[in-house]
Design brief:
Length: about 170
């Protein structure tokens, strides 16, 4: 369940808010000597200000490839080259776009909840199998299932909190 929660947090980091965040570019890969590499492994990615990401490639020939990779990604960003530095300004988001992102956040939250519930189901099945194999009593099964449910509820509440915080972050102008 913790792994599902962490995967959810990683997915949310890729959803952009009004502010610049270097994690937005983690999903963008660049062709580097025949291998597809994340931008963070071929360049220094940092923030110039709250609305601009700066990328400084470690090799001069990579600037054009990095720019092309960012433009080709579905992030809607338009990088600008300034010598050996690439600036990626964050365009302001419209209210409609913000609502679309909140829907996406809720969808990601539901997917994470489904993953956690699948883990719960697998754990409950394992407990039932132990009872069936006479390795545990039915009282043990009930106790384990109650504990599994408490853990599940805690993780789902955590997801709800993260979704609410991300929605608030996205809707902030």
């Amino acid at each position: 369940m913790d792994v599902s929660l962490e995967a959810f947090r990683n997915n949310l980091a890729k959803i952009r808010t009004g502010r610049a965040n270097p994690a937005l570019l983690e999903s963008v890969h660049v062709d580097y000597y025949g291998a597809s590499m994340p931008i963070s492994q071929v360049a220094n990615v940092s923030l110039l200000d709250s609305r601009t990401i700066s990328i400084q490639p470690w090799e001069k020939g990579l600037s054009a490839k990095i720019e092309k990779a960012i433009r080709d990604s579905d992030l809607g960003l338009n990088p600008m080259s300034m010598g050996d530095l690439i600036r990626v300004p964050m365009p302001p988001m419209s209210q409609e776009r913000r609502k679309d992102f909140t829907k996406l956040v809720r969808s990601e939250g539901e997917n994470a909840k489904v993953a956690i519930r699948n883990v719960r189901r697998d754990a409950n099945d394992a407990a039932r199998k132990l009872v069936k194999d006479k390795a545990a009593s039915e009282d043990d099964q009930k106790r384990v299932e109650a504990e599994i449910q408490k853990i599940t509820d805690r993780h789902i509440a955590s997801i709800d909190q993260i979704v609410a915080a991300k929605e608030q972050d996205i809707m902030a102008v």
